[in-house]
């Protein structure tokens, strides 16, 4: 049997608990995976505690953990969403047990909680329990009170729009005992601030002259408020300047319930985050590196060591062929030998009469094998990059950014937060240029690529969407990660909107609404003048011009220059040899060549 953990807090007994259990408690136990029991240490409660423990062990076969002291703290790490809490209220010390419940159920305000009043529950007792529950924002509550002998009444309350205590009819199904009261907030006020931080929250004027609130976070909040019938109360409406620290302070001091334009921040007292609305890293983007000129593509195919090997092979084969030609024909034609070596390596046909000499067959085969490998690899790589744009090495580290002389623009408040978290190395602080929110937004979304920027995941996503309208990228995402985390809206941890907002966020992600709202930001930003009007000029068809043949002309000029040098070397080769070689060394070299020639001729006669 799958084990179900049961938290039994402050083990207690109950006065006339068996009668209540028959009608209500059995339903709760049968429809939950675990329950918690809170009770004081009164004598009458202790007398009945064994009955419930016995029922949990035998009839329901639920394992249990008994806690008998009020200093165990929060229980949320040990329970799941199926928890039901029973709270025994006696006449002796009500405040002490309620304090224990408030501490234990922190961060579990949506827990189904049943308050059982011992003896005769008066109207004043019920109202006091309701007031305490609302002060702690616990709305998923039932109150069982004894009225007459063996007769009980069950109460609940609805705080929207004002607190009203309601009696639960008899024979109500378990599914209807704990309805979702936040489905209709009945214009209950949700306090917030209206600050602007593009693209999360912004105000713009449409082409029709209507003022509209936009931004993916603002749309999430106002869509939730509309669906759940909540009214939005704006606090501090005069100032529209975003102050992240002030917004977080407002939430902590219970001045507002939620800041829909603000994600992240440090979780301080009473402040928590919703389900993540953006996932990714706070990164550094820098200007895209400049493209490499197309005439340099010829040199990109091989590493420098491969080029040295190819050049050495050409010189080696050319020298051997020239020497053999000198031995046979008494002519040292190095330029002709070099041309034939290049033709052999590039797999081009050539009328090489020297191949009749068997000693040159091995050299020719070396040229053919080298040419087959090198030529095909070169052509394959060249054809693969001629249809794209190749860029110079990108900036990926702080060292690269400093070497290229680029500054990183960052919001001043964000920089202070990152620095306090130890995410900015002190060595590289001088690379950052601090500005206010409006200046930062203006530079980023005008695509000013003379700066680098520190961007959160959602802002980088918007920049990427804008970049897709251009044929060439304008920015490059570096390997520098300031913070890597998932961020949600900042909200009070006791807000009645927390659970319903979390469910709403999951729904909009599943239905693709969040993606749509992100894509709507670009046309809305252009309409409101927040993004520079993007004009993408399509390239019209043009015939080939001299500019397109720049690479071919370069090869032709280099070839002609090389041929001219070879002509000079060949024309003045005799004079050069006379100058470089002493007569004695020249005669020695001639004797060797004649000896090789006689040996070759002798082999032919055989």
TrEMBL record:
Its main location: membrane. The chain crosses the membrane at residues 305-328, 359-379. The keyword Transmembrane applies. It is a multi-pass membrane protein. It is found in: Cell membrane. Keywords: Cell membrane, Glycoprotein, Membrane, Receptor, Signal, Transmembrane, Transmembrane helix. GO terms for cellular component: plasma membrane. Gene3D superfamilies: 1.10.287.70. Residues 1-19 form the signal peptide. This is Uncharacterized protein.
């Amino acid at each position: 049997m799958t084990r179900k953990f049961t938290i039994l807090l402050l083990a207690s007994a109950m006065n006339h608990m068996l009668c209540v259990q028959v009608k209500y408690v059995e339903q709760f136990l049968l429809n939950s995976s675990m329950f918690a029991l809170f009770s004081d240490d009164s004598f009458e409660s202790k007398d009945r505690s064994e009955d419930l423990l016995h029922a949990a062990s035998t009839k329901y076969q639920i394992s249990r953990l008994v806690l008998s002291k009020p200093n165990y703290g929060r229980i949320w790490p040990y329970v799941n969403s199926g928890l039901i809490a029973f709270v025994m209220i006696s006449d002796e010390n009500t405040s002490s047990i309620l304090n224990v419940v408030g501490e234990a159920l922190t961060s579990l305000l949506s827990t189904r909680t049943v308050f059982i009043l011992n003896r005769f529950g008066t109207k004043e007792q019920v109202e006091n329990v309701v007031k305490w529950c609302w002060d702690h924002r616990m709305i998923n509550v039932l109150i069982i009170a004894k009225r007459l002998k063996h007769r009980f009444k069950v109460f609940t309350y609805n705080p929207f729009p004002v607190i009203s205590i309601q009696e639960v009819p008899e024979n109500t199904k378990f599914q209807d005992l704990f309805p979702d009261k936040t489905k209709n907030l009945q214009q209950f006020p949700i306090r917030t601030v209206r600050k602007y931080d593009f693209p999360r929250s912004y105000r713009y004027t449409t082409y029709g002259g209507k003022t509209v609130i936009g931004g993916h976070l603002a749309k999430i909040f106002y869509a939730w408020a509309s669906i759940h019938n909540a009214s939005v109360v704006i606090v501090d409406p005069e100032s529209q300047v975003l102050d992240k620290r002030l917004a977080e302070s407002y939430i902590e001091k219970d001045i507002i319930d939620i800041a829909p334009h603000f994600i992240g921040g440090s979780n301080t007292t009473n402040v928590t985050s919703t389900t993540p609305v953006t996932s990714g890293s706070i990164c550094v983007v820098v200007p895209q590196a400049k493209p490499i000129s197309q005439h340099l593509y010829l040199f990109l195919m091989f590493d420098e060591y491969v080029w040295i090997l190819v050049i050495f092979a050409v010189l080696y084969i050319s020298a051997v062929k020239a020497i053999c030609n000198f031995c046979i024909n008494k002519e040292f034609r190095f330029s002709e030998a070099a041309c034939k070596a290049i033709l052999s390596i590039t797999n081009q046909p050539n009328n090489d009469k020297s191949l009749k000499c068997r000693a040159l067959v091995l050299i020719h085969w070396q040229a053919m094998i080298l040419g087959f490998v090198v030529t095909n690899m070169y052509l394959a790589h060249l054809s693969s990059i001629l249809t794209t744009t190749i860029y110079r090495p990108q900036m990926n580290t702080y060292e690269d950014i400093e070497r290229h002389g680029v500054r990183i623009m960052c919001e001043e408040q964000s920089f202070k937060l990152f620095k306090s978290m130890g995410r900015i190395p002190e060595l590289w602080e001088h690379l950052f240029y601090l500005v206010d929110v409006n200046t930062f937004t203006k530079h980023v979304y005008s695509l000013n690529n003379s700066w680098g920027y520190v961007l959160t995941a959602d802002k980088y996503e918007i920049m990427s969407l804008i970049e897709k309208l251009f044929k060439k990228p304008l920015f490059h995402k570096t390997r520098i990660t300031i913070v890597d985390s998932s961020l949600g809206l900042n909200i009070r941890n006791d807000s009645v909107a927390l659970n319903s907002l979390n469910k709403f966020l999951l729904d909009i992600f599943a239905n693709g609404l969040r993606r749509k709202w992100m894509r709507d930001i670009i046309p809305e930003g252009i309409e409101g003048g927040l993004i520079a009007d993007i004009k993408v000029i399509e390239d019209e068809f043009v015939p080939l011009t001299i500019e397109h043949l720049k690479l071919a002309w370069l090869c032709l000029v280099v070839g002609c220059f090389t041929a001219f040098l070879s002509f000079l070397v060949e024309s003045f080769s005799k004079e050069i040899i006379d100058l470089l070689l002493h007569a004695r060394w020249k005669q020695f070299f001639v004797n060797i060549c004649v000896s090789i020639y006689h040996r070759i001729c002798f082999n032919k006669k055989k």
